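input
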Amino acid sequence: MTTQNSSLEALQDIRRIMERSSRFISLSGLSGLSTGICALIGAYFAHSWIVSPDRANYDGYSLKTRLILLALAVLAVALVSAWYFTWRRANKSRLPIWDHSSKKLFINLIIPLAAGGLFAAGLLYHNEWKFVAPACLVFYGLALVNASKYTLSDIRYVGIMEILLGLINMYVVDYGLYFWAAGFGVLHIVYGLIMWWKYEKRPVA
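output
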């Protein structure tokens, strides 16, 4: 029995080493949580600007400019907070934050994201604002699914849910902001809490 336990522990150790060499496992659930909170705060401000009675005091382009700047600010804060919590977890686990696996993760994540960003910019250029939210959700979901093979597999399910939200939003485009808040806000918070509980509060042995 002791020999079997030792062999099992040895196999588990080998599996951990192989996983660490091929997957970036330092993603923090707190990164998802902070990203979701940033998205909900941004959605709150965007909604308040859209429904504000003062909206009539400036033209649509001014409102659109505000919304674009708000989206960029939310993105910047979300990225910084996500990087910080991921760096903190990697540092606590004594693992490098930038290695072969994280490079693969970044490349497979950034290609669909860049394509989605350019696609959304094209929609804005042609004044097709109502399709921006579903496009962002779909491309972001594709990016997560594409990158999931180089990190925790749970990311794949989040990506699939983002894609589904984006596709549904295509048929109810007047509710884009709500879908955006659900996908980038609520879904990130739920995912972040689950990941934190699963891998950080009580890490798998």
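quick obs: The chain has one domain: 43-201.
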